[in-house]
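Reopening this ticket.

The earlier resolution said the output was attached, but the attachment link was broken on my side. Pasting everything inline this time so it's all in one place.
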Amino acid sequence: MQTHCVFCGIARHERDAVTVYEDEEFVVFLDKYPLTLGHALVAPKKHYTNIFDMPEEAVAKAFVLAKKVAVAQLKALGAKGVRIVMNNGSEAGQEIMHAHVHVIPYGVPHLGRRQLDREEGERVASLLRRELA
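Inline output:
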């Protein structure tokens, strides 16, 4: 893990995040500046810069988790569709240089990248956690 990486800090529970799911290798949390209600990030706990650094097993697990989160968004939030995307490199739109997959539900309120309200985030995370249990 990197000392100054925001997502490594979240994985170590040193930085605040609204966590939806966690296991030994991955953490899923709500985006701090979500595009839509329930916009989640799937990130490995181990620091990889992007998909090119990740072992194939980690890539596979990231996308299996992304699918599970997407299904939870459909059921818990009433989403009508879900975009699953991974930006790799700054030229591709990656802003945080720690590998992560965006799971963005559609057919839910569009939030326009405003900072997530903690209370609203906890409510949404609770719904998603129930579906992921």
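Reporter confirms the inline version is readable. The first helix runs from residue 6 to 11. The chain has a mean pLDDT of 96.
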